[in-house]
Amino acid sequence: MILELISYELKCGIFQEYYGSIYSYRKGGDIVATAVKKTISLPPELAKEAEEKAREEGKTLSAVIQDALRLARKERLKKEFYQIEEYWSRKAKEKGILTEKDLESYLKK
After folding, report:
1. Distance (Å, whole) CA 87 – CA 20
2. How far is it, in rounded angstroms, from Cα 13 to Cα 21?
């Protein structure tokens, strides 16, 4: 469903309206990657650090920024997961569920 929606939006140019220019990379006749081109502003020191990292790792500046954003997303999702886990652990303890056996007994009720 999501891929169909994205495909439809690409055909209709809807992404361009919301996300700026879209660049598709093809191999043979198939689209292998799609990128949305954005312009961002960075403080000079952060820009210098990112450019140095790109040089050191033999990557483009774009790849370094993408890696940083992916890492930030991963850390955010991990934090959210632990918050949810903590919430449900607290709820389980309130109901006296401390072990898997306690959970099985509770679920049989």
Report:
1. 39
2. 10
* Predicted pLDDT of residue 13: 52
Q: Using CB atoms within 10 Å of the CB of residue 58, give its burial: 0 to 12 exposed, 13 to 18 middle, 19+ buried.
A: exposed
- The pTM of the full predicted model, rounded to 2 decimals, is 0.61
Q: In angstroms, what CA-CA distances link 48 with 58, 71, 98?
A: 15, 20, 51
Q: What share of the chain is helix, strand, coil (3-state, %, to 5)?
A: 70, 10, 20
User: Which residues pair with residue 26 across a beta bridge?
Assistant: 31
Q: Maximum CA pair distance of the chain?
A: 62
Residue 38, φ and ψ in degrees, nearest 5: -130, 155
pLDDT tens digits, 9-34 = 555 554 444 455 666 666 677 766 67
- d(C-alpha 60, C-alpha 70), whole Å: 15
Half-sphere exposure of 4 (CA within 13 A, CB side): 1
